[in-house]
Amino acid sequence: MTATPKHRLRSVTLPLALAALVPTACHEGAEDGDDAMCGEAKCDDLGELGQALAGFNDPIATWLKANLDKNGQIDVAYLDMLEAIAKQQGCDKASIDSYIISDALVVDGKDPFPRVVNTVCSGDRTKADLAFFALSFADEAGVDLEPREIEMFAWDAAAFQYRFYAGHVVEGSDTKVALELDPSRCHECHEQAPDIPGLKMPMTPIMNELSAPWQHWHAEPVSFDHTVPAATEKAPMFKLLAGEGSAFRKSAARLEQTIRSAFQQRVATARLRLRRNPANVDEAMSLLRPLFCDEHLTFVTEDGGSGLLSAASVVDDGLASVYFQIKGTGWPWEWWNDKMLRLTPPGAPDRITMMATRGQAMVAYEKQALSTRALTTDQVMRVRALGWNEPTMSALRCGLFQNALPRVQSDPPPFAAGAKNLDLFPLLIDRILTVHKGDFGLGGSSMPNEVALVSPDAGKFITLAKGDGASLQTLVDAIVAKSLATATCGTDGSGFCLATADSFGAMIEARFKAIEAAPRTALTAQRNQLACQAKERYPNAPHIGDLDCSMVMPPGDSGGDTTGGDTTGGETTGGGADTTGGAVDVGDCCSAHAGSGCSNDTIEACVCATDDVCCTTAWDDVCVGEVVSAGCAPSCG
Amino acid sequence: MVGRDTTAGLLAAMLAAAVSSACGHESADSDDGAACQGAKCDALDGSTSGADTTGEPSSSSSDGGTTGEPSAIDQACWDRRTEAFNPNRLSFTETALRWSCSDIDSTPATARGQEYCEYFAIALPPPTPSTPYPEPSVLGRNLGVDPDAGQTPFELGLDGEQVAALEGSPDAIVGACVFSSWDADIDAPCGDDCGAPDVLGVPVVTDTFRMKFDPNTNEAALALVEDCTQYLPTAGDPADPQDPYHDPFFRACHLNADVNETEYRKSDNVICSASVRLAECGCGLASGGSLAEGIAPPADLGFRLGTWSDAEGLPPGCRYHDVVEDAHTLVICDLTAAEVLQYGDDLKSYCRDSFADDVVVHVAIPGDAIVCNPPAGEAYADDCPAHPWVLQP
Asked: Do both B186 and B277 map to the same domain?
């Protein structure tokens, strides 16, 4: 629910303007619109607004139909509306929860201002995720919440999607609220990020911080980075809804549960239903997209001073589901069992905050796809093991999808009459995992026009640690040279090789433990890179302190990085990553070389965080010295 | 271990013998020489732990210095300490000692339920043409006094029709996570069936809903408090703040390791730490009664369950399902069809991942009834705060 417009125009929305905002809404229920009542008017009297509402079957629409006047306005106080919708859902006023997020995102360029999120029937797992309400904006005085500037959405069980609404102050009235359906600004945040290719999917609830300590949110007993201005704390509306002592005020821990339910039992389930639709390449591709592209992000923060940070910060959260699906419990690795990085020392001042991770909505979807056998573990592993060192915002995986999309649109894979989207999945995955000459800068005289990234051994899959173009080139060269089977990965999984679930899990573990043992500077550098990427690409990216993205090197800009764990270019040793007797695999980071960057992602990010010349110009002796002096690796030898 | 009335000069001579005596009174029939109660002396992997029978930590010298890499016990103690002082999940408060039902992460699936809180799942898939009258499945429930006694199956087998039915009604309640802190050795006053409603068709009877593991007993809780108030932990150098034993959690954790070999367990370390501080500060009940019984009253069914922010509250979707009014020792959390579908392979793990971190065991401390009289000259008695059981990070 941190989906927040960067700034808001004070609304002077006129009811007459509302009809234009629902261009597509009528088709879903127009046949019911004729006689359905919308408050004092027939829905038809409200034009497209009414017709759209008549066809909606979500709790908010149901209530609106009975309370809208013929001008498309409601004249009910916010809390009364919540109570009425709770009652309509079979719950009482005590079931209303208020959650408070307060960060600088809400009021851009000013002090943090709280956004209050409400749910009704909050203790009922079958109902709590059916409707969400938010007051995000200040009143005219800039102190209290404006209770008539409302954002809300609710689940339409017939249409299998959340319906979005906004309420606005009506000029000249102290109490009336003008209704807006499907506000375009909601799409910015609740749909997939704008640069994600392919069909848009229905909008999803968002809560950026889905784990303890719920940074920016009011959490109990302790809130982190959560500040409500003193004047707002005392202001009547805020005080009533969410002030200290308010019976409605609850910890973000509860909202987390409700949002996760929404992902699992609403969004993922509804999306997965589409797999049974008649085969349609665009739709089938959009159903596969979460395997490749991060439609949404979730952010994790070190839990207080404990040093505990979700493993999702460095390991794809979805991989845990894949392994679970393979044989349930019993895997031996800390990353799988513990699911927590234990950073030392606990309580360090430079704790890791708001690390971007794969969106939990997507992880839940992938899990459900596996459970319903829509996808196999092998299919998911084939995708997620490519660029696995970059669990979030992988340019490689999403690039594969982006490159393949127009190709399969213009040249769809053959499928039988009566086929369903589900039947297209294996064909499309094969097509997506086929690179063409020129993709990612791939080339070479021996490279054919197309190369399938497929293991020659059916019992194994390809792992590629780093998803940059150079690493991919060495992998492709190995496939072309038919030497993939003999490629070996470094002890920490660097480079590329063929792997089983067991060996891949062990590689992840080695990397996981290395990150745990390394100084926080490396993780901080990685956090900064991801945060700046997120800020650029995801409209709802959270506020992160004083991070200056102009000082942070984008991950793809390390120029002459010729890795894959190997600086020998066309060698097919799987990168032949160095090992140093069980110490951290420093790759070529401890030797000066002409290109920028070095072959150990973590060390590279750490060094470049303090000396960007190393990632922009050359990895010279100074950079080598900084490997140790900046605490990026314990030693170079 | 050495009783608090034992002179320091006898310490070294008595260490080895005292280890067995600390446990031996509870299982005198054991013939392994280091007998302990129930599963208390079992390491997590089921083997007998090689805990130091000398009473000395393996790498932290008693005089304060450390000798190289931390031992496994040291590491476990620091890990538990870190968790105990997480500001959002503080274990030590003025009113209660607390930890969550979630076992520490390395606990094997078959050994879960180590923290005075056992949990399992129930699933009742919807009827389908092939299975018109489905039976509820109880998944991952412990069957006996230790993990070797086994568990009910973890996996819920679903056929294609059931998958489709669950997918068709994703928000239907078809499962439940059950959390129980009902002590394995305490009977409900109302007998085996107290009339609590079934949970998805599973009758709420003692055998199903009471904890099973031997350590999850009132007797074990009492013994823990008694041991940790009676035996002296390694003191280290009280004058040296750098000495790891200067930290009360650390020295209590080592004492717990010596006595119970359960340094990995959250609950034992929290209770033992508070007990050690109560003892160091000369605390007891003003009434003269048993401090152990004040902390773990045998009249109760077990420790109460709540959340981190509310001793009387639960996560959304969860509710108390008490067999004795207001006991708050049984918690039911609803599972929807979507969850059962996604996690049917191991719903118990899902219960742990989704709820167990927020279902919190609360050991009420009778603060008003406790009086302290720090003994002059004793180690760590000169800095006793008003509430010695509230350890500070």
From this structure: no
